TrEMBL record:
Keywords carried by this UniProt record: Amino-acid biosynthesis, Aminotransferase, Cytoplasm, Pyridoxal phosphate, Pyridoxine biosynthesis, Serine biosynthesis, Transferase
EC class: transferase
Gene Ontology molecular functions: O-phospho-L-serine:2-oxoglutarate aminotransferase activity; pyridoxal phosphate binding
Modified residue annotations for N6-(pyridoxal phosphate)lysine: 193
Residues in Aminotransferase class V domain copies: 5-345
Protein name: Phosphoserine aminotransferase
Primary subcellular site in the record, as a coarse category: cytoplasm
Compartmental location: Cytoplasm
Subunit structure: Homodimer.
Membership in a protein family: Belongs to the class-V pyridoxal-phosphate-dependent aminotransferase family. SerC subfamily.
Organism for this UniProt entry: Flavobacterium lindanitolerans
Domain of life: Bacteria
Binding site for pyridoxal 5'-phosphate: 76-77, 102, 150, 169, 192, 234-235
Enzyme Commission identifier(s): 2.6.1.52
Length: 357
């Protein structure tokens, strides 16, 4: 039976990416060796890293604008720490927007370094919206936000204007929609949603913002070191970088971010229209802040959960259960999820209504 994978990450990747990366495990570039056993210093892998770094900047429209793309390790969670280490001056302050569990995790790490101002939070409303009215201190070292809140299904549609460096955790919506990426000074994203397997984190940083803290930064945590070593300071996650390159190449063939954004909008509209129409369900996020990547919803009558779960599982759907901290349902519709899979879910919801309304 065809499967429809709604997992929040690790999640679905394009089928052709799975096929090519599986082939590379057996025989990479006809070398007779596996991608898992070749040296990261070999000519073939250096070419992979170079192409992946360049393609990231090309797809984001950041080539020639003073940015560097890095493939690091430690997940997005490591960047919660690396960001203040590299940007927050001794005696300086950082500013953060609290829009969910991951934003709160980033705030916690920054607090270990210095004064950290939370400019606004939607925590009291169970993170069901993005705060809109707040002031960013002009003397802060940077402003940090989370573009898409994977757990709560909210997404920042308009980013605040500020003169201080803007740092953004784009783990769950990188490469999914058009933005003026040059408005961001540092973007990071765990690969395991829209790019590749877990194990590698993309960091895109404007070089000019680095080197201002006066702090002695350990090499492994120092963005400048990783830039100088061309993202090979230590052994990179070779397989994860290669698979990410395959996904980036796939995205370029689809027509890049403008083309995938259209499909993502169509998928989100289809599902949200059904959530709003169907009398058995409620969306959890405030309508104007709804995420096009993660749609969160609840059954109005929770006693129907067992029956509904059986319906979608029988249709080949997997990964629809909400995050363990919030419950309900979450449909993650990353780039590689086809529109047909969303139609299957919508049909299941309609079918369920017929017998359970
Ligand atoms: N930030 C966001 C927005 C996420 O969705 C996640 C994980 O789902 C993380 C950070 C944490 O990422 P990692 O597990 O790669 O550290």
């Amino acid at each position: 039976m065809k499967k429809h994978n709604y997992s929040a990450g690790p999640c679905i990747l394009p089928q052709e990416v799975f096929e090519k990366s599986a082939q590379a495990i057996l025989n990479f570039n006809d070398s007779g060796l596996s991608i898992l056993e070749i040296s990261h210093r070999s000519k073939d892998f250096v070419a992979v890293m170079e192409e992946a770094r360049a393609l990231v900047l090309e797809l984001l429209g950041l080539q020639g604008k003073g940015y560097q793309a890095l493939f690091l390790q430690g997940g997005a969670s490591m960047e919660f720490l690396r960001v203040p280490y590299n940007l927050l001056r001794d005696g300086g302050k950082a500013s953060y927007l609290d829009t969910g569990t991951w934003a709160a995790g980033a705030i916690k790490e920054a607090k270990a370094f210095g004064e950290t101002i939370v400019v606004a939070s939607s925590k009291e409303d169970k993170y069901n919206h993005i705060p809109k009215h707040y002031a960013i201190p002009a003397d802060a070292d940077y402003f940090h936000c989370t573009s898409n809140n994977t757990i709560y299904g909210t997404q920042i549609k308009e980013f605040p204007e500020t003169k201080i460096p803007v740092v953004c955790d784009m783990s769950s919506d990188i490469f999914s929609r058009q933005l003026d990426f040059s408005k961001f000074d540092l973007i990071y994203a765990g690969a395991q949603k829209n790019m590749g397997p877990a194990g590698v984190t993309l960091v895109v940083v404007k070089e000019a913002i680095l080197g201002k803290t006066g702090r002695n930064i350990p090499n492994i945590l120092n963005y400048q070191q990783h830039i100088e070593k061309e993202s090979m300071y230590n052994t990179p996650a070779v397989f994860a970088v290669y698979t990410s390159l395959l996904t980036l190449q796939w995205l370029k063939r689809q027509g890049g971010i403008p083309a995938i954004e259209k499909i993502n909008e169509a998928k989100a509209q289809l599902l949200y229209a059904e959530i709003d129409r169907n009398p058995l369900f409620n969306g959890t996020a405030v309508t104007e802040d709804r995420s096009n990547m993660n749609a969160t919803f609840l059954l109005k009558d929770e006693t129907q959960a067992q029956a509904f779960d059986q319906y979608w599982k029988e249709a080949g759907i997997s990964g629809l259960t909400g995050h363990r901290s919030v419950g309900g349902y979450r449909a993650s519709m990353y780039n590689a999820l086809p529109l047909e899979s969303v139609q299957v879910l919508v049909d299941v919801m309609k079918e369920f209504e017929k017998t359970n309304a």
